[in-house]
Design a protein that fits this description.
This protein is α/β, with parallel strands linked by helices and about 230 residues long. About 35% of the residues lie in helices and about 20% in strands. A hairpin with a 2-residue loop joins strand 8 and strand 9. Helix 3 crosses helix 5. It is elongated and about 70 Å long. It starts with a strand and ends with a helix. About 25% of the residues are buried. The model has no long low-confidence stretch (mean pLDDT about 95).
Length: about 230
Amino acid sequence: MRIDIITVLPELLDSPFNHSIMKRAKEKGLAEIIVHNLRDYATNKHKQVDDYAFSGGAGMVMQIEPIDRAISQLKADRTYDEIIYTSPDGEIFDQPMANQLSVMQNVIILCGHYKGIDHRIREHLITREISIGNFVMTGGELAAAVIADSVIRLIPGVISDETSALSDSFQDNLLAPPVYTRPAEYKGWKVPEILLSGNTKEIEKWQMEQSIERTKKLRPELYKKL
């Protein structure tokens, strides 16, 4: 899978993709993450990519020309399944969406910044707008990192134990059950006996019951979907 990220602050994305699972995914050749500095596509002397809004008011707006130039150049080399804009207006990102994106071959993520982007970009170039929550951030770089991380970890071979990703919270609209490790008792705090029984069928039943109960208590909006 290839993800091209277009941003005015490429340095913000240095760390997220050069450590841990993301780094291993790239080293294995399972994921390619290319970060593009939008200023490289500006034609003016000062590499400016924003301007005042016609409507006036506070805040600058990302210009259409450098963004169109960047996207057009990328599309000249390959076909993209989605061109995503990170925006508080977009669909709320969730696990089913991550699953859907993980089977795609090529994706562009345009990071929002300043007061937003010229709306013509959203009308004519963007295929999907995604938000990671009902709040506003300084820019879309961290949102792009969140999306890329959650998508790439689902690609077969990225995580050594692929069943681990399939049992994550939200894969079935349920939170994951509690997990424990050794020692079985610490300061009088004990691991539930069922998990020490070796009875796989009963353990799975307990885990499902715990998932349902935790979802009902902690995330009632998810529980309603069951």
